[in-house]
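Good day; I would like, with your permission, to put a structural problem before you. What I wish to show you is a protein chain and, alongside it, a tokenised description of its three-dimensional fold. Here, with my thanks, is the record as I have it:
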Amino acid sequence: MTQQRLKELLQQVAQGRLSPEEGIKRLKDLPYQDLGFARVDHHRSLRKGFPEVIFGQGKDAGQIVAIARALQQAGSAVLVTRVDGDKAERVRKEFPELEYHDLARCLSLPAEEPPPAGRGLVAVVAAGTSDLPVAEEAALTARLMNSQVECLYDVGVAGLHRLFASSQLLEKASCFVVVAGMEGALPSVVAGLVAAPVVAVPTSVGYGASFGGLAALLGMLNSCAPGLSVVNIDNGFGAGYLAGLMDHMG
């Protein structure tokens, strides 16, 4: 339920084109819809401007389909994160409208009515090719929020000249998502070069002493570059969502 759909429903009741009883019937699942194993938060679009997102890891295909169908029937966009190829195939047998993004490990379906367009450009920057699943998750999330997104990949600090070669993107983007594993230095470099806000995403990419992304996380949290915020390890969705919010408020 979006603000526009709610407004149209109330107008129909006020104009007598819809009975109050029918209006109540359509609104009965607005706070949430109880599926037994899940309570789908249909009110989230009104509160946050974007619907509930399904975390696919730990859910079986049937549960994902049921939640996704409930969101689709409410006119919401559908985004399912952390879905491997085998599970995605099982889900799409029952819900073929969903598109699978193999690299991002996500399933998606745009909203029936697209949200307002963002005001600027979200740049998703990844240090290395191994960071791309997280970067693609961020990019997909921002695009579903109707933000314009451009991606710049494999520009880590081991070859920093690759980043400087894309100076035009650095200058025109209104918000950045910067994804890096290993020592996690790239977000600090980008934040030191640009005036726009930077959302840093540590990834679990790295050798043993990276401690599954903890070293990158701590490096980003200890950055001295202003204008930089940090999300959790491998949380591409959280970064893309935050960038999308900033893009729509900017």
